Please model this.
Amino acid sequence: MTVDASGLAGVGEVTWPDNCAPSGATAVCSVPDVPVIGSGYSRQIHLGIRAADGAQTGAQGRITYAATATGGPDGTLTAPEDSFETDFMVASGPDLSLTPMADVEHAQPGGTETIPFELINKGNESAHGVKVKMTASYGLDFLNKYDACTYTRSGGDDYAPMTDATCTFDQVLAPGDSFELPAPLELAIARHALNDRLDISVDPADGATDLASRDNYAALQIGTDNTADFSVTGAAVAGTAGQTVTAPLTFKNNGPAWFANLGSGDPAAKVRLIVPTGTTVTGVPADCVPHTLTGGYYGQRTGAPRYDCALPYWVSESTERTYAFQLRIDAAVPGTTGEVSIHPEFGDFAFDPDTTNNTAVLAVN
Model:
């Protein structure tokens, strides 16, 4: 790879790593192997950059790259000059940086967890105060309350309950200074906790722009040793040929834990109906999507052989939701059945201690 840093003249200076051979403002860097997409990411050339002596705030420069690799039908593969670039600007100000925090595993329902919290001002100017925003998901609560913080609860039908802490601390952080909360950050783990999350963000309190905000945020996964028993209930309906009946199919979380896909926002589960032979669905609940039997696209809302009904991305420890299908009995055949089941959007219900109640029957006559 050819790295051209001539665009940094008078603005920045590069420190070259060992796998680069510099010549003036350019260098040829060797990379032994280039992985294919999807096989993982690793830094192969790590340049150090600092502001040049005498560079003024606001001065800008650019590094450009070109590459040639062996392989391909022509013997070489080429990424031409300027196929990628790094823009560099000399700036001045505070740079708040959260010290990395580890996720929590094996928290206990009804217990507490202490979260280490520290930030450092890595910038070249003082931060005149610090803003801290913390959001704890439904299975967590802030055990110790700080006078500098305002605590509010949010969430509803569409959004999982959360507790927000918005804080402003007046402490001045000079370059190199660190900051900790007035008392250790302690979380109360609810009896219904399972796969929870604590989000933390920090910013200078005086309106100053943080020089590098990428390390101003952390999202901690708080895993609790708990279970959530998902179940589905079918129905038994009866009628004569040509009659339309209502078939209520019910999902329930029997607890004791809630569950949410807090990162992806995917449905907590999907309720699936395989329609009984000899019947036709004429009325479909709002959250249910028609499919072919194998899960493919089905062009009409009614009359499909299969329906998948998506729950929200979260369910409480006692959520119960019924999907009422309108079913026309085309032929009065005694003992015909359809299948009702629940499925994760991905993976499995590893937290579910009893999967025998994850399937049920829709019986007709």
Summary: The two ends are 73 Å apart (CA to CA). The mean pLDDT is 95. Residues 124 and 188 are 37 Å apart (CA to CA). The chain has no helices and 31 strands.
